[in-house]
Specification:
Layout lengths: L7 E7 L13 E2 L2 E2 H11 L7 E5 L2 H9 L4 E3 L7 H11 L4 E5 L8 H13 L4 E8 L2 H5 L5 E4 L5 E5 L14 E11 H8 L5 H6 L4 H5 L4 E5 L10 H11 L9
Parallel strand pairs: 1-4, 1-6, 4-5, 7-11
Antiparallel strand pairs: 2-3, 6-10, 7-10, 8-9, 8-10
């Protein structure tokens, strides 16, 4: 099965009433709304503009997208996760692959987006998720950052917001964190949508675990560590600090 760019839709899920940071998609970072910055990162990957879409439950975000000529779609307020939102888009559209780029990734590396797209073309039947190495102990202990354990063949074993495999091993072994971009075949999203949150997914608050609990494999791909997910108001300051540095012109 040959997959082309036109067969792949990048979906940027954006929920207005986030439990940890309400209204964050429209919060400004150096004067530019976060959702717009994330959309611009997708464009820089070289993927066709018509194959990039914001999926939201908010009329405020929808109107913002229309005003800024960003392709968008209104989805149900019942969607509990970004992947649920992408799955709803999959039911309403006809693409073979859906890339889920979380709406709170305003400095996501476009090279990584392209890397995931190229990999899903090679493995169109696989679910794909990104990871990178954790190099700071404070990140290892940060509960906003999902940590990853995978097999030798880079298949996901488990993911947790807790320090895993354990805090004591951090200085002796490499540890890894999730990078919030996913690639899904349409069929896997349809199966995902049929279920509510499963036990481990619910306890960890990590949506990719639903696929593991459904006994579906997830292929992990190593990406750069430049991405910073905005989970709290304090994260905006971190992103602005990076953007203001002269040596990161490629991120702007």
């Amino acid at each position: 099965m040959r997959i082309r760019d036109k067969d792949i839709l990048i979906v940027i899920p954006a929920r207005y009433k986030s439990s940890r940071f309400p209204g964050k998609p429209l919060k400004r970072i150096n004067g530019v709304e976060m959702i717009k910055r994330t959309y611009q990162r997708s464009l820089l990957s070289g993927h066709p503009k018509n194959n990039i879409m914001v999926a939201t439950d908010s009329s405020k975000i929808l109107n913002f997208c229309k005003k800024n000529l960003i392709k968008s779609i209104l989805t149900s307020k019942k969607c509990k996760t970004g992947t649920d939102r992408v799955a709803e888009v999959a039911k309403k559209t006809n693409y073979q692959i859906y890339i889920n780029l979380q709406g709170d990734e305003p400095i996501f590396n476009p090279i990584d987006i392209k890397k995931v797209i190229n990999l899903t073309k090679k493995y169109p039947k696989e679910i794909i998720n990104g990871y990178c190495e954790i190099k700071e102990k404070k990140l290892f202990k940060n509960k906003n950052i999902p940590k990853v354990i995978f097999s030798r063949k880079k298949n996901l074993i488990y993911m947790s917001r807790q320090p895993i495999p354990s805090n004591a091993l951090f200085d002796k072994n490499k540890s890894y964190r999730q990078i919030c971009i996913y690639a899904f075949p349409k069929s896997s999203l349809i199966k995902y949508k049929r279920l509510n949150k499963l036990p481990f997914e619910k306890s960890e608050d990590i949506e990719i675990l639903r696929f593991i609990e459904m006994e579906m494999s997830v292929k992990m791909v190593k990406l750069s560590s430049k991405s910073i997910s905005v989970d709290t108001p304090g994260d905006i300051k971190k992103v602005e600090k990076i953007l203001n540095k002269k040596n990161v012109k490629k991120i702007k």
